[in-house]
């Protein structure tokens, strides 16, 4: 199938050609003709599949005829985060460059005055986050009675973030006779229920089974110690792999994003941080620096990074195992986009066994296990159930060996068990333990590790942390 066969106008085709796209992606092939026909669409598509163009391209042609009236947008696209909304707006500009369509972006954190002025002039396309939209609606600055096309993007994320009540309210303000396009990376029952409520006889499109990781991403799980600063040492080891050119590093909590970012910066790694507590201009500037390659490592939270189109990300690191398995899919979907290959590493401590088992069960296969510096010799991790059993057995069998190893580690660290238990409190004032830190190396170190007796999830101290290394520079 070619773009010409999808029924798009010559103007849109010319913009697509200028964007450098040769052939439509599967979601575009399937969705565009139905959107052009005016049908409702329920699209289940994983990230990086070209989903945005699948609705923006036909919308541009549909909106081409007709005129916008003051404060009455003709179409509305709801996005869960400001970054995604901005990204969709950029797509509209790119694909709609041969059409005189007007667009407004309503997102929190930026001045209302400019947004209101745009609305007053009349807009064809309104791209908004639910909160800011309801805010303006409440002030009487916007009317949705003439909005004939509604796009609800990243619906599962809207649900996770607690936006669905707002979305339901907004949908209630729109005319009943409208076209609705509903997209979600995953299709849990609650999303299905909402789709049934919002859509009318939709064309269902699924370009990959729900909750499937992109095939272009190679995944690995790395055994990590529970103590945060030791875990950060494992991460740094991974980050020093030669092929890490641009990486996203996910933490589960905003607070930990800041801690990890500061730690990486202290160790001379070119990092920046991105999370929801940062001011919008700072978030935008950080993203730009990352996209421009000024900073190589972006430590982020799920909310800030969801759905971002960052084509050059070579690696995704899950510093924390996400509690929600679907977040794992979203996170690793930040790499391996548009057919490129990517690598995803996840640091798992013994406390993460349950969450890891849930992810593996959702994937339907175990994630490969690897040791830092030996990623190409990755071996298959055992199934979650045997993992637990093996870990139990190993705990009994290896207690003595582990205790002696731990004692060695403590002796090297100069810290005892007591300080280990208070690891998190130490985190912000971290100083590298002797023997764990090195300056960036010119060649990756291979650590000839014996195959662990049990699993990736015991509380053993990884051998590479115990290796004798040159005296580090001051942290
Ligand atoms: P999305 O899933 O919408 O975030 O798109 C992911 C990436 O794929 C973006 O960088 C798009 O610019 C790119 N893209 C979208 N459609 C195509 C296409 N037909 N051919 C090549 N790249 C595309």
Report on this model:
The protein has helices at residues 10-18, 26-37, 51-64, 82-95, 112-121, 130-138, 155-160, 164-173, 189-198, 228-239, 254-266, 280-291, 302-305, 325-332, 353-363, 384-397, 399-413, 417-421, 423-426, 463-466; strands at residues 41-44, 75-78, 103-106, 125-128, 149-152, 179-184, 203-206, 217-223, 247-250, 271-274, 297-300, 315-318, 342-348, 368-370. With 475 residues, the protein is α/β, with parallel strands linked by helices. The chain has two domains: 3-206, Rossmann fold (3-Layer(aba) Sandwich), CATH 3.40.50.300; 217-394, P-loop containing nucleotide triphosphate hydrolases (Rossmann fold), CATH 3.40.50.300. The strands form two sheets. A seven-stranded parallel beta sheet has the order 3-4-2-5-6-1-7, sandwiched between helices. The protein has a seven-stranded parallel beta sheet with strand order 10-11-9-12-13-8-14, with helices on both faces. Helix 5 links the parallel strand 3 and strand 4. Helix 2 (26-37) packs parallel to helix 3 and helix 15 (353-363) packs antiparallel against helix 16. The longest helix is centred in the C-terminal third of the chain and has 15 residues, at 399-413. The termini are far apart. 44% of the residues are buried. The site of adenosine monophosphate has 15 residues, from helix 3.
């Amino acid at each position: 199938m070619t773009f010409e066969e999808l029924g798009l106008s010559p103007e849109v085709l010319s913009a697509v050609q200028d964007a450098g796209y040769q052939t439509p992606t599967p979601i575009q092939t399937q969705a565009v003709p139905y959107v052009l026909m005016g049908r409702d669409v329920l699209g289940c598509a994983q990230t990086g599949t070209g989903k945005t163009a699948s609705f923006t391209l036909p919308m541009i042609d549909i909106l081409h005829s007709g005129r916008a009236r003051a404060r009455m947008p003709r179409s509305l696209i709801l996005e869960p985060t400001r970054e995604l909304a901005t990204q969709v707006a950029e797509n509209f500009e790119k694909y709609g460059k041969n059409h005189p369509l007007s667009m407004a972006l309503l997102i929190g954190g930026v001045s209302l005055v400019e947004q209101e002025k745009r609305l007053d002039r009349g807009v064809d396309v309104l791209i908004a986050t639910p909160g800011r939209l309801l805010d303006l609606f409440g002030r009487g600055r916007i009317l949705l009675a003439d909005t004939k096309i509604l796009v609800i993007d990243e619906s599962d994320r809207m649900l996770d973030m607690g936006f669905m009540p707002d979305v339901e309210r907004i949908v209630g303000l729109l005319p009943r006779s409208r076209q609705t396009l509903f997209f979600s990376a995953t299709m849990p029952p609650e999303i299905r229920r909402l789709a049934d409520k919002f859509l009318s006889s939709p064309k269902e499109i699924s370009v990959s089974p729900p909750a499937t990781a992109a095939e272009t991403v190679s995944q690995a799980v790395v055994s990590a110690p529970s103590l945060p600063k030791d875990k950060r040492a494992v991460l740094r080891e991974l980050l020093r792999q030669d092929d890490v050119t641009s990486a996203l590093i996910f933490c589960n909590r905003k607070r930990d994003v800041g801690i990890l970012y500061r730690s990486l910066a202290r160790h001379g790694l070119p990092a920046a941080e991105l999370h929801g507590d940062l001011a919008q201009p700072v978030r935008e500037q950080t993203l730009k620096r990352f996209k421009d390659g000024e900073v190589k490592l972006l430590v982020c939270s799920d909310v800030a990074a969801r759905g971002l189109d960052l084509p050059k990300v070579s690696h995704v690191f899950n510093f924390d195992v996400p509690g929600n398995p679907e977040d794992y899919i979203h996170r690793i979907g930040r790499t391996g986009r548009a057919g490129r290959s990517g690598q995803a590493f996840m640091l798992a401590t013994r406390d993460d066994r349950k969450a890891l088992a849930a992810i593996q069960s959702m994937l339907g296969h175990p994630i490969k296990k690897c040791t830092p510096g030996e990623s190409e010799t990755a071996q298959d991790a055992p199934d979650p159930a045997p993992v637990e059993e093996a870990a139990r057995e190993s705990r009994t069998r290896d207690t003595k060996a582990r205790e002696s190893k731990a004692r060695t580690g403590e002796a090297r660290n100069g810290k005892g068990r007591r300080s280990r238990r208070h690891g998190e409190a130490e985190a912000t004032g971290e100083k590298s333990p002797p023997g764990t830190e090195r300056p960036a190396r010119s060649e990756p170190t291979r650590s000839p590790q014996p195959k662990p007796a049990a699993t990736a999830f015991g509380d053993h101290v990884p051998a590479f942390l115990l290796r004798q290394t040159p005296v580090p520079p001051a942290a």
